[in-house]
Design a protein that fits this description.
Two copies of one chain form a homodimer.
Chain A (H helix, E strand, L loop, with lengths): L16 E3 L9 E3 L6 E2 L4 E10 L2 E7 L8 E2 L2 E3 L6 H13 L3 E12 L4 E10 L10 E7 L12 H16 L5 E4 L2
Parallel strand pairs in A: 4-9, 8-11
Antiparallel strand pairs in A: 1-2, 2-3, 4-5, 4-7, 5-6, 5-10, 8-9
Chain lengths: ~180, ~180
């Protein structure tokens, strides 16, 4: 995990200490010695889509770090007050400005090393015209052969794309659960 | 969302203000006016299992709030540095002290109202003897008819159990994605 440690209490601002909480918890947490607030650090959920147009998929060239200039599926951190599908749709609108219909759930990818779970849905594009937001330099359609496999931003995306094209060539889409170490 | 708001910066302890960050983000976040730390509040992932023994499933009677005394599947908040399956297995050990083999992914349940995603795996019990931890008053096996449907702690659990027994009677287990509003 590359997250910075919690140094101060989110409730009262006092310096925290890392220790076992008093409730029987078996993991050390950032605990406030003044107001007793326990700060939990939990995995983050990334949600996205595989937007399809005929035999092509939509990829976005990143205009932000990390992986500036590399290609990715539209995806980002899930927000409060939305479902996985709503979050995946929101990211597809924000990053690609695409017109689409949401499809079925496609992949659950664990990246335990960085405390993340990535969840992808299939989506059906309704147009091949895009209007990407500031996070994206360019949104473009690729057939399997055209995908810039060596220029994919994240392994979660590359591995999801491989399984997508494999299912597509079989004519049947499954649900894929796998880990990236 | 019932989570308390962030009042102080986790990095320096100064009082935060809720505003749009300077990076193009479209949602208000708790931002520190002194050290500029942006605090994100994200959905939490709950992971658990449906442990089966013949035509019975294992339920745990809760010994903690919320829903003290109600019955649930073994489940809890996913931790850093584990996969969904590892977290589900950990909770099954902690809450039921069960001997089991993990099975396939079974359900993804959105509860957007409280900012949670619940993920359940099937599991095959290897013994009908349990050694529940402090969070559980009692761990017991139930057939579908015996399940205390009116005493189930959480709708995510009740709805997952209904789908489990329906699939079981069809002789084929699927993967279920649904929302609880």
């Amino acid at each position: 995990m590359q997250r910075p440690p919690i140094k101060h209490c989110k409730n009262c601002g006092h310096a925290v200490v890392y220790r076992l909480p008093d409730d029987g918890d078996t993991k050390e947490r950032a605990v406030c010695p003044v107001c007793n607030t326990v700060h939990y650090e939990n995995p983050l959920t990334v949600v996205g889509t595989i937007p399809a147009w005929g035999d092509k998929v939509l990829l976005c060239k990143r205009n932000i770090e990390p992986r500036f200039g590399k290609w990715t599926l539209p995806a980002g951190f899930m927000e409060l007050n939305e479902t996985v599908a709503e979050g995946a749709a929101r990211e597809t609108t924000e990053e690609a400005g695409a017109q689409f219909e949401m499809g079925e759930f496609f992949s659950l990818v664990n990246i335990a090393r960085v405390g993340q779970v990535h969840l992808f849905y299939r989506a059906q594009l309704l147009s091949d015209q895009f209007d990407p937001g500031f996070e994206t330099q360019e949104a473009r359609l690729f057939t399997e052969d055209e995908v810039p496999w060596d220029e994919i931003a994240f392994r979660t995306v590359g591995e999801t794309l491989k399984r997508y094209f494999a299912d597509r060539s079989k004519g049947q889409f499954g649900i894929h659960v796998f880990d990236i170490t």
